[in-house]
Design goal:
heterodimer; A: 244 residues; mainly alpha; B: 261 residues; 10 helices; 43% helix; 23% strand
Chain lengths: 244, 261
């Protein structure tokens, strides 16, 4: 019964966020602040994660493909794995850990210290002021961060496959161009967009309906990260099976 | 005018308000007194529309708070100031930005006009020089004064004060209450104040309501409550004021003189 109630409340929260997101005015300064926080400030961690993921894919892919005499297909293998799957999913998990947890903690602390009530009493709408800018920034930042992850990952694979293991540069990139379709890229963008919605929705909701005191905030933050991560993987499966 | 009619509220089965009715006339301040946990803050939050009652109504200047939605409610709140017990300052903003916040968000004033207004109010509350500090860098008294300045920025018609002096030393507490009295003379707002500083609060307010176990036990002027014969009221007032018995006797004598007169 509690679970049903929570699901309903989460659904209403999302509907309310959507409604305020599509009706002006948008708090543009808050939106830019959130773009900076969720997008720009996550770029380094995304860069690092993308680079190492690409490098590992380069290594593992080379040795696996080599067994079947298909090492020349390393480029498409690295690129497809990144664009369709690992790029969107790992970027989303990293953003959840870095920005999602901070969102929950920030909103949660504002709730327990009555700052959200203060916003309401100034005649401002907390959804418009606090939630919508984060929501829109998440939707915009996720595909861009995923694109960075993909590009850096492909170069990570290149570094290992071409520079370290000796595959031809033309082979690595040429085969990639032969095998990757626009549809694969669009699929990755769809995924990252939906992950942007998911992360901001869950993390803002958990902060907005936080429990009491410091313990409540810490519990909400943990729950937000765990729930977002599980939902990202679950939703990834649903989307993958629906898009193919 | 604030009119509270037959307010009932429960939290997880615990009945906190059991039919509270109160009226505060325009330009009047009412002190809500009573022991901790008897529902004083809950009443203030109902008046501000932050909580919805199980039953009952609250009218502010003729408008039913709970029937208002969206922009209507935002408009009503534009004329309402609330001083939270904790101050509820935005921790990521400086004192100046906290006070300027309502003006930046709800008015079309230029940054220069905002600066002028904010500095004037900060001067009034004795915070000139602290405008670049963050809430974490200032004392409890300064937090309350900043919050007071912020709540006054849009010249509210109704002010609600939730324990504005709790946790402050007596000197700072009296300074805050002096400020409230001074600002009331200037703005003539209708107000409700929850406070345990009875001796000073009774000099500011025109009416006192004592809340006990979710019901209003007494409503009257400060003089009337001081002379009350109700044992619960008397015990609370005596404890709160730490008035010696002789002083209470003085009130008894005064009351007798009144009756004779």
């Amino acid at each position: 019964m509690d679970g049903l109630q929570t699901t309903g409340r989460m659904g209403l929260f999302l509907a309310k966020t959507f409604a305020f997101a599509v009706t002006p005015p948008l708090k543009f300064s808050q939106f830019l602040k959130q773009i900076r926080f969720i997008g720009f400030q996550s770029a380094l961690v995304i860069f690092m994660t993308g680079a190492f993921t690409g490098m590992v894919l380069g290594l593992q892919g080379y040795y696996t493909l080599n067994r079947f005499g298909s090492a020349a297909l390393l480029g498409p293998m690295v690129a497809l794995s990144l664009i369709k799957e690992l790029g969107p999913v790992l970027s989303a998990l990293m953003v959840t850990a870095r920005a999602g947890s901070a969102m929950t903690a920030e909103i949660g602390i504002m709730r327990i210290t009555e700052q959200i009530e203060a916003i309401e009493l100034m005649g401002l709408n907390p959804f418009r002021y606090l939630i919508v800018p984060k929501f829109l920034a998440g939707i915009l930042a996720m595909p861009l961060l995923t694109a960075i992850f993909d590009v850096v990952g492909i170069f990570g694979g290149y570094l290992i496959g071409v520079k370290l293991l000796g595959i031809g540069e033309g082979t690595y990139f040429g085969e990639m161009a032969n095998y990757i379709r626009m549809r694969d890229i669009i699929e990755g963008i769809y995924k990252s967009l939906s992950f942007g919605v998911l992360i901001t929705w869950v993390c803002c909701y958990k902060g907005y309906y936080v429990g009491f005191g410091a313990e409540g905030v810490s519990k909400a933050t943990t729950q937000a990260v765990v729930l977002s991560s599980v939902l990202i993987l679950f939703w990834d499966y649903i989307l993958t099976s629906a898009l193919f | 005018m604030i009119k509270i009619e037959n307010l009932y509220k429960s939290f997880e089965g615990l009945e906190v308000l059991k039919g509270v009715s109160l009226q505060v006339e325009r330009g009047e301040i009412l002190a809500l007194i009573g022991g901790s946990g008897h529902g004083k803050t809950v009443i203030l939050k109902h008046v501000a529309g932050l909580l919805r009652p199980d039953r009952g109504r609250v009218n502010i200047n003729g408008k039913d708070v709970y029937s208002l939605r969206g922009t209507e409610l935002e408009e009503l709140r534009g004329h309402l100031g609330f001083l939270f017990q904790s101050g509820a300052l935005f921790s990521s903003l400086t004192v100046f930005d906290n006070v300027a916040f309502p003006l930046r968000e709800k008015t079309r004033l230029s940054e220069l006009e905002i600066k002028e207004k904010v500095l004037t109010v900060l001067d009034q509350v004795g915070l000139r020089g602290a405008e670049d500090k963050y809430p974490a860098q200032i004392s409890g008294g300064m937090i309350k004064r900043t919050a007071l300045a912020r709540s006054l920025m849009r010249n509210p018609e109704v002010m609600l004060f939730d324990e504005p002096t709790t946790g402050l030393d007596p000197v700072i507490a009296h300074t805050i209450l002096d400020l409230i009295q001074f600002i009331h003379k200037e703005l003539k707002f209708t107000g409700m104040i929850v406070s345990h500083e009875l001796s000073r609060v009774f000099q500011i307010v025109q009416k006192v309501a004592m809340l006990h176990e979710g019901v209003v036990l007494f409503v009257g002027t400060p003089e009337e409550i001081m002379a009350s014969k109700d044992p619960v009221v008397r015990q609370f007032i005596t404890e709160a004021l730490r008035v010696p018995a002789s002083a209470m006797k003085h009130f008894d004598q005064e009351e007798r003189l009144h009756q004779k007169g």
